[in-house]
Amino acid sequence: MLPCELKERLKKEYCYRIELHAHTCPASGCSQITPKMMVETYAKKGFDGVVITNHFFLENLKGETKEERLAKYISDYEETVKAAEGYNIKVFLGAELRFPPNCNDYMLYGADYDILSTCYDYLDKEVSTFRKEVKLPDSVFLQAHPFRNGIELCEPSILDGIESFNMHPGHNSRVGIAARYAKEQNFKIQIAGSDFHHPDQGHEAVSALRTKVMPKTSFDIAKILRSGDYIFEIGENTILLP
Ligand SMILES: [Zn+2]
Ligand SMILES: [Zn+2]
Questions:
Q1: Could you tell me the distance, in angstroms and rounded to a whole number, from the CA of residue 133 to the centre of ligand 2?
Q2: 238 neighbors 10 (Cβ within 8 angstroms)
Q3: In angstroms, what is the span from residue 63 Cα to ligand 2's centroid?
Q4: Each residue of 197-225: pLDDT tens digit?
Q5: Looking at the predicted structure, is the pLDDT value of residue 239 above 90?
Q6: Fold assignment, 12-240
Q7: What integer pLDDT is reported at residue 58 of this predicted model?
Q8: Which of 80, 35, 102, 46 is nearest to 233 (CA)?
Q9: Could you tell me the distance, in angstroms and rounded to a whole number, from the CA of residue 55 to the centre of ligand 2?
Q10: What is the Cα–Cα distance from 45 to 39, expressed in whole angstroms?
Q11: pLDDT in tens, 16-27
Q12: What is the Å distance from ligand 2's center to 76 Cα?
């Protein structure tokens, strides 16, 4: 089979395209993308789904009480779900977590209010404590962009995998080194994400998770990632097999 035929066959087989890494404002202080802009942007690109992975760490969460902070965080996701009514695009809840003492980020898929509430109680503790004490059998927990400047490699045994292909145009995520590291460590899960934050920078929809079946919930995304039955698309035309 010619490579181009194979590519077309894979695209047809893995026909659903989902963004795994996207930030909205105000929940992510660093993003300029409102829930409405998020939906419009990805609908225009023909995506089937977007996971909203806003920053989840103490300095980024706004509000006085835990309940207020969680409510404000979740409300961006809910606004995005509402904005998606009338579009053929599904919005999922994820999160990008951070724990002291460093600036490492971790992607979480398979999230709901109760899980985030549990995560919240560990935001002042180390990631190793969180992973030891909190069992998340229906979620996946991955180190985001592990080879960016300022990031420390996390102990592999407490990870389900890594985000090898972080496509944020404002950072060098050293994706080649990350992909090689993922193979060396034999991580079961590698992901790609656009880390979309800003308009008008060619930042949106740079990568997609392509799946055979359309996930219905955030937990279905975790299940697909665990199954290994997925591929990636980088840009509009490059297929990657994780
Ligand atoms: Zn950010
Ligand atoms: Zn991010």
A1: 25
A2: no
A3: 21
A4: 999 888 899 999 999 999 999 999 999 99
A5: no
A6: TIM Barrel (3.20.20)
A7: 96
A8: 46
A9: 7
A10: 10
A11: 999 999 999 999
A12: 15
Q: What is the reported pLDDT for 36?
A: 98
Looking at all shown ligands, the one closest to residue 19's CA atom is 2
Nearest ligand (C-alpha, residue 197): 1
SS3 of the chain: helix, strand, coil, percent, to 5: 35, 20, 45
pLDDT at 4 over 90: no
Domains of the chain, by residue range, sit at 12-240
For residue 56, CA distances in Å to 74, 110, 112 come to: 10, 15, 13
**Å from CA of 11 to ligand 1 middle:** 30
146 alpha carbon to ligand 1 midpoint, in Å? 15
Q: Give distance in angstroms: CA of 159 to centre of ligand 2.
A: 17
| 176 Cα to the center of ligand 1, angstroms | 22
Residue that is written with structure tokens 């034999």 in the block: 186
Q: In this predicted model, what pLDDT tens digit does every residue of 16-63 receive, in sequence order? A: 999 999 999 999 999 999 999 999 999 999 999 999 999 999 999 999
For CA atoms 18, 154, 24, 218, the dihedral sign is positive
